[in-house]
Amino acid sequence: MSTLSNNPDAVPEQALPEPLLGQLRDSVQQVLSTMVDARCDGCEGAHGEQLRIQAMVDFQGAHAGTLSLACDDDGAASLARGLLMLAPEDPLGPEEIEDALKECANMVAGVLKTRAFGADGDARLSVPRLVVAPLASNDGLWWRVQAGALVVGLRRAS
Predict the structure, then answer these.
(1) What is the mean pLDDT of residues 6-23?
(2) Across 46-64, average pLDDT
(3) What's the CATH architecture for 18-156?
(4) Residue 151, strand partner residues
(5) Where are the domains of the chain?
């Protein structure tokens, strides 16, 4: 059963301080390179890919906001294949892709929580959710994964 929603529950955005941006970059690199075994090129900026699916994890506590992991179709399949250790020719269903995206977003949020707020820091993470909503091409930090594009954004609540 699909868990997709058309409501992104956007959090009002605030500018991110550079130390937090650096911690986000490091968190994404750690998850992609070690847990998903994906090659990631840390390219930033607008690329025009259609990022149709987003996995989101909210965080609350001393800091509050939302972490979004958005992919184009090829990037989503690439992340799922990496996480599930599947070869390119192995079959991959939509639910496997959805679950993998939520798990990747959850892993990035967990690593960021530890890096930014400490292992015992005052931050609580929500259960990851999926939304179908286009993400503007300049709304985050961009990476290329195997066969597609991935963008990770972080919005702090005001």
Answers:
(1) 55
(2) 74
(3) 3-Layer(aba) Sandwich (3.40)
(4) 70, 142
(5) 18-156
In Å, how far are 62, 80, 144 from 84, measured between CA atoms?
Answer: 34, 6, 18
Band of pLDDT at residue 92, cut at 50, 70 and 90: very high
SS (H, E, C) 85-151: CCCCCCCCCHHHHHHHHHHHHHHHHHHHHHHHHCCCCCEEECCCEEEECCCCCCCCEEEEECCEEEE
Q: What is the pLDDT of residues 104-118, one digit of tens each?
A: 999 999 998 888 877
Which helix (H) or strand (E) element contains residue 65? strand 65-71
Label residue 4 by pLDDT band (50, 70, 90).
very low
Closest CA to 11 of 155, 131, 112: 155
- Cα angle at 151 between 95 and 17, to 5 degrees? 130
CA pair distance 86, 107, nearest whole angstrom? 19
Full-model pTM = 0.79
CA–CA separation, 21 and 16 (whole Å): 6
